Structure prediction request, 998 residues.
Amino acid sequence: MSEFLQQVVNGISLGSVYALIALGYTMIYGILRFINFAHGDVFMIGAFVGYYTAPVISRALGGSVVLTGIVVLIIAMTVCSLLGVTIEKAAYRPLRSRPKLTVLITAIGVSLFLEFGGQLIFGPDPKLFPSLIPSGAVVNSQNLIINVNSIVVIVTALLLMLLLRVIVYNTKIGTAMRAVSYDHRAASLMGINIDTVISFTFVLGSSLAAAAALLYGSVYPSINPLMGIFPGLKAFIAAVLGGIGNLVGAALGGLIIGLTETFVTGYLSPTYRDAISFAILILILLFKPTGLLGHHEAEKV
Amino acid sequence: MRYMRFCHALAVLSVALGILFGCGRRVSENEILIGEFSSLTGTTATFGQSTHRGLQMAVDDINNAGGVLGKKIHLLTEDTQSKPEEAATAVTKLISRDKVVAVIGEVSSSRSLAGAPICQANAIPMVSNASTNPEVTRKGDYIFRVCYIDPFQGEILAKFAYQSLNMKRVAILKDIRNDYSIGLAQFFVETYTSLGGEIAAEQAYSEGDIDFKAQLTALKAANPEAVIVPGYYTEGALIVKQARELGMTMPIIGGDGWDSAKLLEVGGSAMNNTYFSTHYSADDPNPVVQNFAKRYREVYQETPDALAALGYDAGKILFDAISRAGTTQGSGIRDALAATRDFDGVTGKITIDKDRNARKPVVIIAVTEGRFTYKETIQP
Amino acid sequence: MKRHQSKLYLLAGLAAAAIISAFESSMSPYYYQVAIYIGINIVLALSLNIINGFAGQFSLGHAGFMALGAYTSAVITTSLGIEGSDITGILVFALALVCGGCIASLFGLLVGVPSLRLKGDYLAITTLGFGEIIRVIIQNLDFLGAARGFTGIPKLSNFLWVFGAAGILAYTVANLINSTYGKGFIAVRDDEVAAASIGINTTRYKVIAFVTGAFFAGIAGGLYAHFITYINPSQFGFLKSFEIVVMVVVGGMGSFTGVILSAILLTILPEALRGIAQYRMVMYALLLVIIMLSRPQGLFARGLRVKRYLKQTPAAT
Prediction:
């Protein structure tokens, strides 16, 4: 039983990170109707920003762990937002009127560029991510250990998701985002600046990815330039699982993927870890392609 | 229009072909070309980089002493990127395009296994500096190694765990992507169970994984007195770290795949109360070792690890063999290598046995207070 | 691509194979290796072109089909203990390759079926998923060597086989394009709803595209396995799929000669740039992005058909 609880905690912790990344995917898909393959790599850049800035900030702030964490978070979010917006402007905007395929391939190209460019700049070997969260255990019994790590990850993810919800539902720009996701031509007719909205969406998505990266790095402190590939794919699957374009769905999907992955690895076989997410994807696309919370979109001719 | 496009394509192809065929290497008359294939980049980059540094030092040493057979040694290095398929391509290029007379490499048994058949087929001697899986030298009579093999290492680890540490019940966490890990785990289990020890549980991971909590939680539930992790340092350090986070305070034991400074860097204080077997220790008072370590520190500003020491020894033994053979012919070098007896290496006195493996002592390192400390040497 | 031209390609392929085979023994093993890889990549690129280029189904799991062909054929030749190139050896190798292709096309069917209702991005991710699932399953099967890989495959591939296969594939594709199937593929690609509304069985054509593409990818896999004699699952991951996609995209999706040229170029280039190998993938990526931004019809494509398709504005929503 305690092993089960332990796995549950592990699963929710992992799921929270996936949820944060999934939110980025789902927002961008909701607005632009395409999968930003490079999102997982923005996540990776966030981790490296954390890696390089944490020691510097920590020294500057005299070693305060919590303050360092917050400052590094802000820096990472800023850098990733800039990166996201730049990618959008340089690679996706010119292709907005082209067929989806072209943009998809471009996204793959950007993704590969970030990955292998990262290998070139940071070096391909794994690096140790600095500790941004105080270590130690909150619950420390013989059978169940809950680390401060896991708690912080879950709490931070929740806070960020709440913040996102406030932005999307209670602010002007959020309303604009939702309008664009329903019908972008009507929205632009209403006077909404599509470009601004899209850029803002990328800012939000990339910031969340940066936060996810810092949390992920704190739990799994080995980072390398290819680290964004699988979390990115799994987060995308989570977004699809929950219903792409649906925020709550993305969060839910992330949690489900995180838990399933942990349970399969722990109880069945660790070597099927990656395949599980894909199997879930295929199943959901076969039986309920709109996702758990999504709604059907008819294709107009 | 079509004509233009055709010309366009032709131009591009010509340039590419030009670069490909144009860049070759002219063999200088008073040089002996030695090839090295190492993982300079990729997941096990420290293995390749250390090996390369040790080997380069050996090359510089021998050249400063006058070279071999009156000629200077020139080392050509190819990066395997920690991938076996790249190893095969690298070796092919070294042999057929660069025309090296011998090849040194690799650390990883999987990559050595990829390169060995190519060397054997071309009658080019290959000296592996650190591959411990017995299969490597079985690929042919041109394939040698200057380290011990896993049946021996597994046996020593088993005895160490059972007798020295008094652990009667252990769990194993091995890397199923890695021939070395699987082989070592198997040899460990054979000896350990024959001594009367009990294997409480066995779990597996894949090279490249970063989350082992699921496997560790399962192992913890089986109550082992120690955990054996016969994999590489990249995962080893993370495994130990996560094990400690799960409250697993028992000793954790690894093999020579753990030997890297990164182990301490990544593992940190979690690494205390761990042990691993390797080929040499920088703390060994033997003057040969101290001399080597001192010079290495001067040139590279860091303490040499076992891979650097083995890289050095592999180079030295190869040059010695070429010198004894009196020729750079593959068959001559091969015979001279096979006849190596009591070579005074940094990693011990090296004798190449009839299976083309080296009979050498195993050194056990303990990690205490965040550093590697020499524990004991076990003779074959 | 006129019909008679297709025969030309077949003859060209076989002639190239025969001529160069004559020089085989005097050729440096390194250049020989590069040439073999060129041939295999041509087969891979052309086979993906059927799915991506002609039928417009964006498949990112092509390496999975290659893996299936590689492992199947390897199992057959190693379990039958084939050594050399005597007549039995040749027959068994051919059989092994075809079996590999068949298993791959079986999975092509499996992948093709769910793809029926998926478009664009979803299809891409699903095929990626299939490719990964295939890889992970192979990685867990001990009798296939699992993650450690499958060694000891007899080195049966040579110039004749590789370029013969390339020639046959070129011939098949050329004929396919000019047939009803080809027109059906292109109709499905250009506007699926319109095609369906005029009575074209889009399902059928999509599935045929997948099955054919997968078959030849399987053959390529078999040829590859029997050349490098050692295969492991990580060689057939999505990075490999991407490499093949890059070949098709750079050459021009749906362009026959373009794809062949780009396969040749993109095989030689990494080898020629071995000195700066770590820049290779970065350059690939940049190449992809730049081509998509400036010349999405590919470097070597000709034909208004492809250009128009890729530059068109999608129908208004």
DSSP finds eleven helices and four strands in chain A. The mean pLDDT of chain A is 86. The CA atoms of residues 5 and 144 of chain A lie 7 Å apart. The longest strand of chain A covers residues 137-140.
